[in-house]
Specification:
five-stranded mixed β-sheet, about 170 residues, 5 helices, alpha+beta
Length: about 170
């Protein structure tokens, strides 16, 4: 069984928002017959299984069984293509794909990939903050209008009580 140990920050898709701890990089081998083999479980896996690894945020790498060439990107692109064929809404519109293809001939492509990645990571971090705020809001006890009025009246009485006691002169 082949394992590679990496820090989160060394993995694609992880950034400064991630926890820095040691992770095991799951190695998947892709054979010429297009089958993918999980070296950890010693079983062949489907693209649906690889999709689940992505969903579960399990770090992995797909390598060619004979050459060791990294095939992770092509497998990920294949998963996206199959998801769209299954009717999932397309995230990559034709226009976006056309523009991405045009970038490949441009000298700026080296700068664009990190920029795109950073933009997506910032979006995900903002989305996480919004989810947390939303969940915190929902977790607050819901009060009825009657209870709100009672609380306001108690606060008002408390203020009046403090003011009325401070306005009285002590008897001499």
């Amino acid at each position: 069984m082949q394992r590679t140990y990496l820090m989160n920050s060394e993995l694609p898709g992880y950034n400064e928002f991630s926890h820095h701890r040691m992770l095991v990089l799951k190695i998947l081998r892709k054979y010429p017959n297009r089958r993918i083999y999980d070296t950890e479980t010693s079983k062949f896996v489907t693209l649906a299984d690889v999709h689940q690894l992505v969903t579960d945020r399990v770090p992995f790498q797909v390598v060619h069984s004979k050459t060791g060439t990294d095939l992770t990107r092509s497998v990920l692109l294949q998963i996206i293509s199959e998801m769209e064929e299954q009717g999932h809404q397309s995230l990559l519109t034709n226009r976006i794909l056309e523009e991405l293809i045009r970038f490949y001939g441009d000298r700026m492509v080296g700068l664009m990939a990190p920029w795109f990645e950073q933009q997506i990571l910032q979006y995900l971090a903002a989305q996480d903050r919004l989810k947390t705020q939303f969940m915190n809001t929902l977790s607050q006890p819901y009060t009825t209008p009657e209870n709100m009025l009672k609380q306001m009246m108690e606060q008002y009485r408390g203020i009046l009580g403090k003011n009325s006691s401070s306005n009285h002169e002590p008897d001499a």
